[in-house]
């Protein structure tokens, strides 16, 4: 450009305006071409610097992965005792922690590699990315599988030891009981004939049992049982699942006892048919009175038996519905607990890609929460319909649903907070990337301009032009310092949410700013 200005001043005197205009146009074109070349050169230099950094980071990560792979045990445990398993598990967990500590740098390197691959038409960065990802995933898979195998083996070993101890104690107790009954059996002097004699004597006593006494005994027993079956206490709705189970067990015991006493009812009814003709004519009044008592007993027996069966059927249906609702509650509770644990592990994403994936996960959890909320509302509003009547949910079940609703609200709040936090961090992250690219590009332009600002021919005019260029570059550098300050502010805010990746960016900032 200096040559063009000198040539124009020499060949076209100032009086020739046309020549002067021609020279100015040439100077403007050269200046524009120079600026475009400077910009393109700065872009290429920045791209080259990023490529070199990416190569260095890839080489460093590959070396770290090779060291971790070489540290893995090559031989299995010779003796898989509890102590050896715990040592091996602890060793693999330490390697896992070392891998996780490098995950942030891996994500940053892969992200930079993808940006580089999109900027150049060369397959090498994509091949490096694929190789690094494959090594990382292979190592993680290998460690996770071995950890799972060792932990499962340890779990089975502990279970085996515990069950073996319990079985040993049970066998010892059973052996003692068996020895005791063996000693008792040797001391018993009864033989088979004695046992048969006792049974015959029992049957003879049964035949001699007075029918009136049996009827009185049955009526007395039913008078005691009937209020408990059909009385006010039995009509009150149970307030908890445990009360339902206790009441059902009590009624089943009553029915079992009625089944045991059925032989008495059959015996008394049969005794009326066995009265002789002489007995009927001589004791007609007593027979009539006996028949009335027998009829009263049979009616009460049928009434109690029918009521008992209806109550048992009702409670069994009630318990079945309760069990079904409890299973639904347990499923929702298990899902909510799993989401709580999952959300705790998703608090600190380490890359923009993981943040975007985390936002999708939050949306998925919110969609599932809507489904679970609908199921909870249906459980809360539902009622157990029995015998044509509506019975509300039991107190403990209602309490369980209320607890689930509180847990659901807690998970919903956590998801909303996590979504808002991730969106804020993602915005900060994008702002950080944008500021870093701008500042890095501006620095590359200044560096490139300084390296190519030396005049080819030394002259007073050339030196004066160089001084002006350097002063302009200094002004641009001072103006660009604000971009670095903004970048440092964003990095400071990222340290709270993403300390590991913020540290990497800060390290890059210090190198680039220096």
Write up this protein.
The protein is mainly α. Helix content is 87%, strand content 1%. The protein is built from 15 helices and 2 strands. A two-stranded antiparallel ribbon has the order 1-2. Helix 2 crosses helix 13 (395-451).
The radius of gyration over CA amounts to 46 Å
* SS elements, strand count: 2
Query: How much of the residues is beta strand, in percent?
Result: under 5%
Low-confidence stretches: 276-280, 384-389
Spatial arrangement of strands, main beta sheet: 1-2
Shape: elongated
- What is the helix tally? 15
Distance between the termini: 32 Å
Average predicted confidence as pLDDT: 78
Largest sheet: 2 strands, antiparallel
Q: In the CATH hierarchy, what is the class of the domain at 48-184?
A: Mainly Alpha
CATH architecture of the domain at 48-184: Up-down Bundle
The percent range for helix content is: over 70%
Q: Which fold does the CATH topology of the domain at 48-184 refer to?
A: Methane Monooxygenase Hydroxylase, Chain G, domain 1
Output the structural class: mainly alpha
Element string (H = helix, E = strand): HHHHHHHHHHHHEEHHH
